[in-house]
Amino acid sequence: MARRSFSLMLAWRYLNPRRAMLSAVTLISVTGVLLGVLVLVVVMSVYAGLERTVKERLLGFTPHIRLEYVPFGGFREPIGEWRGVAEQVAQTPGVESATAFVQDYVLMVDEQSRKRPVMFRAVDTETPSQVEGISKMLDSAYPGSSADMGLDNRIVVSSVIAKQFQLQLGDKMKFLSAKNLDEVERIDRMANEPPVREKYATALQSTRELLKTSFEERGDKLFLSADKDFALTGPFMDISHQMEGIRDQEREIIERFLALFEAEPAEAGFLLEKSVPEEAAKVLAELDATDVEKMNAENDKSLREIILPKEATVIGVYQASQMALTPDVFMPLPLAQELTGLQDAVQGIAVRLKDPYQAELVANEFVKTLPEGWQLITWIEELGEFSRLINQQRGMMYFVLSFIIVISAFSMMAVMFTVTIQKRREIGVMKALGAAPGQIVKVFVYQGMILGFLGSLLGVGLGLLVVRLRTQLQEGLRAVGFDPFSKSFLGVDDLPAHVNPTEVVVIAISAFILCTVAAFVPAFSAARSDAAKSLRNL
């Protein structure tokens, strides 16, 4: 006990040799550790706050689980009877709500005819959680903003769109569906195509001849062999399967022709009604009598109905963030269904959970209860790249900023080497009086431990103070024209932060250990010095 007291007493004595409040060496060493710990605590707390804030904003409108119907494992199919599925899903334990999901691109046009393609997301305004999630994102720079869209053509736009179009609450915007543009292009191509009777004249003439010779009478039915049936219907099936080059009116006539040959199978063929050849000939006569100009005029008339834009009123502006991709426009579900041509169908079922972090467990329950053909996408999968990017950035910040503490430790090591050189004679006297090497090592290790403890404690305290006063500091920086954390980038007015106690303790302990190790190296070197040479200051 006496030896430990001797080493600790001498360590305190060396830290304050002039009996002042704090020596310059002590102040410099503590300040280096303090700054390293402070920077790490502040930056990591801000990073954690940004991650939590962005995730909360995204989870405010992003489905925790999205169900899509992919019956053949290929493209997503619209869901017509989605309400029944949503009711079934909503009964699953852990599910808060299940509603429609519609998302697509449209062409946005303002009153000055300025245009821009935008991504929109449908909001089922009958689901309070969806409206509440958007309400939390509203931009304070637009007082009076609301997310209460109801079932009318009222929309909430992002701050980016509002700035580009110079929008104010109450402005009118028009939307032209991207699918309508595809339809315009298709109808325009059809208008320049020759009619089927000219384009496939050879196949039609062959079919007329086959209608006269391909049937055999069998009682009150006509028998058509499988080979002749294929010869009659094969060319028309190929024509009807073509997506382009055939007008809708001609396609409808061809489908009626093929429907005549849907009959009960017989051995090596089919049994048909005796009226089939005559009715088929009449259908072919209709195809020969088609009026190209009349068909084009009908298509043009439907085109004028298709491209009619939908008008909506801006009732809210939400603050977009450059840290994550968010929709440009939120609109009520009925308007979104009109723009996508879904009528009463939807693209998927948006499921919200009481605990979003249980998404994978709940998704496994859906797999057991839903029939085949359903595809499940959790928010963890959808935002996986974003989460990985945040975690990678946090790791890089840890790695880079930890060097501040390492540099402080090296500075302390240099200071301790200087101290041990200055105290060589005193070290020689202690050794001559019988001080053990361990005692001498402890003298300087205790100094490093005290400096590390004080630096870590003050760094944590000041770091937490800076985090607490971050809003006032940010306002002060903005007042002098410097804003490193702009609202347009973060998507929030004030800089968010979240203090993780475990993380703070790890930072403080790491700094303390590094300072202790840094002091041990010069202490060990001093303890091995020769007493006689130290007394002669050699």
Automatic annotation (TrEMBL):
Q: Where is the MacB-like periplasmic core domain?
A: 26-175
Q: How does it sit in the membrane?
A: Multi-pass membrane protein
> Looking at the keywords, is Transmembrane present?
yes
Localization annotation: Cell membrane
The transmembrane segments are: 21-50, 396-422, 443-467, 504-527
Q: Which Pfam families match?
A: FtsX, MacB_PCD
Family note: Belongs to the ABC-4 integral membrane protein family. LolC/E subfamily.
Q: What is this protein called?
A: ABC transporter permease
